[in-house]
Amino acid sequence: MKLKIFLFTFFLTNAYAYGIISVKFDLFPYANLRGLYHSENLSYLNNWRYMDQLKFYENFIPRDTDVVMLGDSLVHGANWNSLLPVSVVNQGIQGDITEGAINRLDLVFKFKPKKVFIMLGVNDINLGMPVEKIFENYKTIINSTLERKITVIIQSTLLTSNNKWNKNIEDLNLKLAAYCKEVGVAFIDLNAVLALSGLSFSELHYDDVHLRSIGYILWRNEILKHI
User: Fold this and answer.
1) Which are the contacts of 9, defined by CB distance < 8 A and separation ≥ 6?
2) Is residue 91 within a helix (H) or strand (E), and if so which, with residue range?
3) Which of 16, 49, 69, 111 shows the smallest number of beta carbons within 10 Å?
4) Dihedral sign (CA 89, 125, 136, 46)
5) Alpha-carbon distance 222 to 191, whole Å?
6) What is the pTM of this model?
7) Nearest in space to 156 (alpha carbons), one of 187, 194, 125
8) What mean pLDDT is predicted for residues 138-145?
9) Of 116, 111, 98, whose CA–CA distance to 50 is shortest?
10) For the range 61-64, what are the long-range contacts, defined as Cβ-Cβ under 8 Å and sequence gap of 24 or more?
C-alpha cells in the first residue's frame, strides 16, 4: 500500500513539474495545444475589444485630419493629439492584428489623412501567425493606403521581453524595412531608438510589451521628424 502511495505521489509530482516546464519552455504537449488553440483564434473577430472599438470608431465624425495612427494597444495607449502639434485620429485597438487593420481601412480613409503611421504585428506573432503571412498583410495595408495618395510611415514592431517572439519580430522588421525601401515608404526603427536611449527594458516598459510614458516621448520625437 505504501509503495502504491509512493508511486502515485512520485508520478503526480513529476507530471506537475513537467507541466510547468513545458509551459515555460514551450515544450510538447503545451506547444502543440497552444498552436491548436491559436490556429482557431487567429481571426480579429474573436477579439471583443476589436468589435467594441470598431463600433466606436464608426461613429467618429468624418473630417479632414493630418495624421491617423493605426495599430494595436501600443498605438491605442497614447493621447497623440496632446503629444503632436497636428490633428490626429487615434485608431489603435487593443489586441488588433494585421487582418483586423485591413478590415477597417475604410475607417482610416474616411478622415482623408495626409499621413498614416502604422504599428502592428506583435499580436499576430503572439497568436502564432507565420511571419510571411503578417508581412503579406502589411503589404496589403501599405499598398491600399498608397493607392489613396496618402503618405505611409511604418514603425517597427517593438521587441518584447519574450525572446521567442523577438526572433519573429526581428524577421518581420527586416522584411518591412526592405519593402519600405523598395516602395519609397519611410520606416522608423523604434527599437534602435529605444536601445540608444540607454534605458533598461523595465525603465521603458511597464509589462512585457507596453511602454511607459518615457517610451512614448521617445516615440513621439521620432514621429516629429516625419510631420
Assistant:
1) none
2) strand 88-92
3) 16
4) negative
5) 11
6) 0.81
7) 187
8) 98
9) 98
10) 62/110, 62/111, 62/112, 63/111, 64/111, 64/112, 64/113
210-226, pLDDT tens digit by residue? 999 999 999 999 999 99
C-alpha cell at 197: 536611449
Per-position DSSP letters for 139-199, written without gaps between them: HHHHHHHHHTT-EEEEEPPPP-S-HHHHHHHHHHHHHHHHHHHHHT-EEE-HHHHHHHTT-
Cell 521587441 belongs to: 159
Are the C-beta atoms of residues 219 and 193 closer than 8 Å to each other? yes
**What is the residue-wise DSSP string for 12-78?**
HHHHHHHHHHHHHTT-TTHHHHHHHHHHTS-SGGG-HHHHHHHHHHHTSPP---SEEEEESHHHHTS
User: What is the per-residue pLDDT across 159-185, written as a single tens digit (0 to 9) for each?
Assistant: 999 999 999 999 999 999 999 999 999
The 10s digit of each residue's pLDDT in 7-39 is 555 555 554 544 444 434 444 444 444 443 444
Instruction: Assign a CATH topology to domain 44-226.
Output: Rossmann fold (3.40.50)
3-state secondary structure of 88: strand
CATH 3.40.50.1110 domain extents, the chain: 44-226
- Residue 68 corresponds to which amino acid? V
How is residue 137 written as a grid cell?
498583410
What pLDDT score was predicted for residue 25?
46
